[in-house]
Amino acid sequence: MVRAFRQLDVTLRSGTLAGVTDGKMPLRAIVATTASKTAAALSRAAGRGDGSVIGGWIGLKIDPDLLAHLASGRAVALVSGTNGKTTTTRLTAAAVGVLGRVATNSYGANMPTGHTSALAKEGHTPFAVLETDEHYLPQVIEATRPKVVALLNLSRDQLDRAKEVAMMAQLWKTALAGHPEIRVVANADDPLVVWAAAASPQTTWFSAGQRWQDDSSVCPESGHPIERAGGDWWCVGCPLRRPTPQWVVEEDGVIDPRGDWHLVKLQLPGKVNLGNAATALAVAGEFGVRPIEALPRLSRVTSIAGRYAQVDRDGRNIRLLLAKNPASWLEAFDMADQAPTLLSINARDPDGLDTSWLWDVDFSPLRDRPVLITGDRAYDLAVRLQVNQVPFQHVHTFDEALAQVPPGRLEVIANYTAFQDIRAVLDRVN
Ligand SMILES: [Zn+2]
């Protein structure tokens, strides 16, 4: 850290600061920006990740308003929700890129430190698309004054956070109520999201084909049951019901607000990513980007921080799928091919220490393929699979799993730290 400040001092004296901003920022913000970039660069050089957290942290220590200063003058979109925000952010940044340079936190550093670092690193760009942790959305709205906020979904991230889902919807609702100028792009299929977004005067609704519904069976407004039929839903005790979406996933494409259907070709697998692409098109649409301009860019996105990455090793084509909560396990089963599948579960801090969420996931779709299991909590998973009547084989390491399957595709579905472990074995694939 001492080195970081020494470097900063050199930068200040050598007068290279003019290039880092558009010349309108206060001196403190300029100094903070430079310190942030320097610390991030040193952290990267020291092999400690991409440095975005430490860089942003230092910048905000020097100037608590740094994020606001850096966001000023940019058209910003924030992307928030429990699932899909990293991928949707990546796709949205690609789509908005039609118009000009876009700053984005593409490594999933989705709190204000990460945002600060991402904007400092990119220098002045006309646009920014920022993945935003659900909890921090109100704070980041205040700091960045976004043009667009995209609300994807709200579901339990881990069992020990279950009660937070309704609180989160309330938090969003309150934050948006104070900013009627923000254009909200929101998921019509999620009652909690609809409730949070409905008060905003400028809301565009999308339907991305959400399947997970277990966290929204009670109306957040009146406490009555939510009823569902086909794709529709409504509260039996108050006027809350599914709004008509302007952007809709249909078959392997998306219908836009004018009613035109566009074929969506992605390198990312599964229906869930088609939904993420529809959301990205809707957000980019608020900036004036047309689907026909954005689609070629979406089709070039291959993997995001290792997710969906494919690695060839010893004749096996390994594909990595991250699943961090019941909703995303369901999506992962949909994405995975009918091929040998390795499941890896840890229960370290970032995963949540409680594995009882395993009982909320129906593993029966895996019955007709070879299943291998590993990870710190493989035995919890074993019990769950046994009850679900899914045959499996336990392996101690990733290499052992590789040796057990024939040449061809190996699907790997893992929760957060288990995913990072396997990524490390495969040399930090991107
Ligand atoms: Zn109701």
From TrEMBL:
<protein>
    <recommendedName>
        <fullName>Lipid II isoglutaminyl synthase (glutamine-hydrolyzing) subunit MurT</fullName>
        <ecNumber>6.3.5.13</ecNumber>
    </recommendedName>
</protein>
<feature type="active site">
    <location>
        <position position="354"/>
    </location>
</feature>
<comment type="function">
    <text>The lipid II isoglutaminyl synthase complex catalyzes the formation of alpha-D-isoglutamine in the cell wall lipid II stem peptide. The MurT subunit catalyzes the ATP-dependent amidation of D-glutamate residue of lipid II, converting it to an isoglutamine residue.</text>
</comment>
<dbReference type="GO" id="GO:0016881">
    <property type="term" value="F:acid-amino acid ligase activity"/>
</dbReference>
<comment type="subunit">
    <text>Forms a heterodimer with GatD.</text>
</comment>
<keyword id="KW-0547">Nucleotide-binding</keyword>
<dbReference type="GO" id="GO:0009252">
    <property type="term" value="P:peptidoglycan biosynthetic process"/>
</dbReference>
<dbReference type="InterPro" id="IPR043703">
    <property type="entry name" value="Lipid_II_synth_MurT"/>
</dbReference>
<keyword id="KW-0067">ATP-binding</keyword>
<dbReference type="GO" id="GO:0008360">
    <property type="term" value="P:regulation of cell shape"/>
</dbReference>
<dbReference type="GO" id="GO:0140282">
    <property type="term" value="F:carbon-nitrogen ligase activity on lipid II"/>
</dbReference>
<dbReference type="GO" id="GO:0071555">
    <property type="term" value="P:cell wall organization"/>
</dbReference>
<keyword id="KW-0961">Cell wall biogenesis/degradation</keyword>
<comment type="pathway">
    <text>Cell wall biogenesis; peptidoglycan biosynthesis.</text>
</comment>
<comment type="similarity">
    <text>Belongs to the MurCDEF family. MurT subfamily.</text>
</comment>
<keyword id="KW-0133">Cell shape</keyword>
<keyword id="KW-0436">Ligase</keyword>
<keyword id="KW-0573">Peptidoglycan synthesis</keyword>
<dbReference type="GO" id="GO:0005524">
    <property type="term" value="F:ATP binding"/>
</dbReference>
<feature type="domain" description="Lipid II isoglutaminyl synthase (glutamine-hydrolyzing) subunit MurT C-terminal">
    <location>
        <begin position="322"/>
        <end position="418"/>
    </location>
</feature>
<dbReference type="InterPro" id="IPR036565">
    <property type="entry name" value="Mur-like_cat_sf"/>
</dbReference>
<dbReference type="Pfam" id="PF08353">
    <property type="entry name" value="MurT_C"/>
</dbReference>
<dbReference type="InterPro" id="IPR013564">
    <property type="entry name" value="MurT_C"/>
</dbReference>
<feature type="domain" description="Mur ligase central">
    <location>
        <begin position="79"/>
        <end position="284"/>
    </location>
</feature>
<dbReference type="GO" id="GO:0046872">
    <property type="term" value="F:metal ion binding"/>
</dbReference>
<dbReference type="InterPro" id="IPR013221">
    <property type="entry name" value="Mur_ligase_cen"/>
</dbReference>
<dbReference type="Pfam" id="PF08245">
    <property type="entry name" value="Mur_ligase_M"/>
</dbReference>
<keyword id="KW-0479">Metal-binding</keyword>
